[in-house]
Amino acid sequence: MKKVTLKITGMDCVSCAFNIDGPLEDADGVKESKTNYAKQVTEVTYDEASITKQQLAAIVKGAGYIATLVE
C-alpha cells in the first residue's frame, strides 16, 4: 500500500470532504481516503497495482473538484 496527498481546490464546506472521500473509497484499490477541509487536502491509501495517482485525481475531478498531487 502507498499513500499520496492530494491538494484539493474547490471545496466550499465541510460536507465537500464527504463528496470526495465517498467516490475515492468506492474505487477498486483504495483502502482509505481522509479529506481535511481546513487544510484543503486528501490523504489516500491505495494499492498502486490496482489504481494510479492520476486515476485518483480523475475521481476527484469527477466529483467536481480539482486535485493536484503533492510530492
Describe this structure in words.
With 71 residues, the protein is α+β, with helices and mostly antiparallel strands. Helix content is 31%, strand content 37%. It is built from two helices and four strands; from the N terminus they run βαββαβ. It has a four-stranded antiparallel beta sheet with strand order 2-3-1-4, with helices on one face. The chain is globular and about 35 Å long.
In helices, the fraction of residues equals 25-40%
Enumerate the spans where pLDDT stays under 50 for 5 or more consecutive residues: none
Q: Write down the Rg.
A: 11 Å
How do the SSEs run, as a string of H and E? EHEEHE
Shape: globular
Q: Please give the order of strands in the largest beta sheet.
A: 2-3-1-4
- Determine the strand fraction and express it as a percent band: 35-45%
List how many beta strands DSSP finds.
4
Summarize the entry for a quick read.
The chain is an alpha+beta fold. 31% of the residues lie in helices and 37% in strands.
Break the fold down into its secondary structure elements and pairings.
Blueprint: E1 2-9, H1 15-26, E2 30-36, E3 41-46, H2 53-62, E4 66-70
Antiparallel strand pairs: 1-3, 1-4, 2-3
Question: Which short descriptors sum up this protein?
Answer:
71 residues; alpha+beta; 4 strands; 31% helix; 37% strand; globular
